[in-house]
DNA sequence: GAGTAATGAATGAATGGTCATTCATTATGG
DNA sequence: CCATAATGAATGACCATTCATTCATTACTC
């Protein structure tokens, strides 16, 4: 196994164990075992468990942003662009339940709160500020979406998506393409003027 | 301190410590200390830490449901009833940040997932099924709200509320009565036909 | 190119710390 | 004075992290 493979194996094992059992029941010993390395090896690739967890989160975030950008065109009308992003995110989560669970765990842990706070203070704008931010700000100035603080627009758009994804992944609802579309449109309804 | 007071003190200490530091950094030793009792005393009132945590959750849930019912009238029109419930919940969370944080911690822990699963299987209907369920089901049959599975209606209605409450409590937005009203109405927009 | 030395990645047993829980002992109050 | 409540030191389990040691690979020398 190459060096890069080993690092990857450790990250993958962490993803699986944390997603399934939470941070506290994902001890380094188990992560190492599942990755097929010794416990000490983790520390050759990551300074400590903390760093491992944060690095994994950042890599997932990057991957998601890249995925959402494919097929996103700045020329389409607001509603379409919005629905593309929002239903794309939902589809991604459904296709990657482990990643979704990991991200949720992260967001609700002390790591995640600190991480988010840094981000909000660094730039004075909310999360994955790249595409979403632009879309929302433009929408507000052009008076197609409600005139509310950016953070609240994010909450209205993504709050339901997270909640729906969780319920699908826990098996409480079975989503299909039609439902996903309807949900994305409902989110749009809550934003549009 | 009376027996009841002691039990109450333990629950309160648990609420505070779990809300602030999470389950893992709320050891029994600290809970006991903050409650002004010895560690062993906890086990005279609760079988173990698990039970303590679940009992506290159930008491909070009961309290919230009771609060929301005050001022709720079955005669008002849909939109008003909905906005009453949803903005009431948001106001409750904002007024009780510790409770909100505790509930969120709980929902995202193995306790919470198991708890929810039992609930969903017990009755084949989603959460606080009392008032909300009735309102939503009635709304669907009367064709005032979208014809979507009940679980999804819950997600659309409460997903944003949770998200908004979290951002307020973390200090990322300062909500006032006007904003709360606007948010509740936006949630309604996503449900209404 | 064979033999030897140097390197540094990988290992996993050992360490020190933390935690939930127990229980022998002590305090309380009726 | 007895029954019951409360105590908190002790226990055993578990965990993140360390580090002396092993081992495979590379570099060097003749």
How would you explain this protein's 3D organization?
The structure is a homodimer of 193-residue chains. Chain A folds into two domains: 1-46, Orthogonal Bundle (Arc Repressor Mutant, subunit A), CATH 1.10.10; 54-191, Tetracycline Repressor, domain 2, CATH 1.10.357. Chain A has helices at 3-21, 28-35, 42-45, 49-69, 78-95, 97-107, 110-122, 131-141, 150-169, 177-191. Chain A contains ten helices and no strands. Chain A is mainly α. Helices cover 73% and strands 0% of the residues of chain A. The mean pLDDT of chain A is 93. Chain B binds a DNA duplex (30 and 30 nucleotides) through residues 3, 6, 24, 27-29, 32, 37-44, 48-49.
Radius of gyration of chain A: 18 Å
Q: N-to-C SSE series of chain A?
A: HHHHHHHHHH
Strand count of chain A: 0
* Largest sheet geometry of chain A: none
| CATH class annotation of the largest domain in chain A | Mainly Alpha
């Amino acid at each position: 196994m190459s060096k890069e493979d080993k690092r990857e194996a450790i990250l993958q094992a962490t993803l699986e164990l944390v997603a399934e059992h939470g941070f506290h029941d994902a001890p380094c010993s188990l992560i190492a075992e599942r990755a097929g390395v010794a416990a000490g090896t983790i520390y050759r690739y990551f300074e400590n468990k903390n760093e491992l967890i944060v690095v994994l989160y950042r890599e997932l975030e990057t991957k998601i942003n890249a995925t959402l950008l494919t097929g996103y065109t700045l020329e389409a009308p607001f509603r379409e662009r919005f629905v593309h992003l929002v239903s794309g995110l939902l589809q991604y989560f459904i296709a990657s339940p482990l990643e979704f669970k990991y991200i949720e765990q992260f967001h609700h842990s002390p790591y995640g709160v600190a991480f988010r706070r840094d981000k909000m203070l660094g730039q004075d704008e909310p999360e994955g500020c790249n595409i979403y931010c632009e879309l929302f700000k433009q929408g507000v100035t052009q008076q197609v979406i409600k005139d509310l603080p950016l953070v609240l627009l994010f909450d209205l758009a993504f709050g339901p998506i997270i909640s729906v994804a969780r319920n699908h992944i826990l098996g409480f609802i079975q989503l299909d393409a039609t439902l996903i579309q309807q949900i994305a449109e409902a989110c749009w309804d809550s934003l549009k003027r």
